Amino acid sequence: MVHHIVMWKFKPEIEEANKPELKKAMHENLSALVGKVPGLLTVEFVEEPIPSSTHDIALVTTLERAEDIAVYATHPAHVAVADTYVRPYVTERACLDYE
Question: How many CA atoms lie within 13 A of 23 on its CB side?
Answer without folding.
Answer: 19
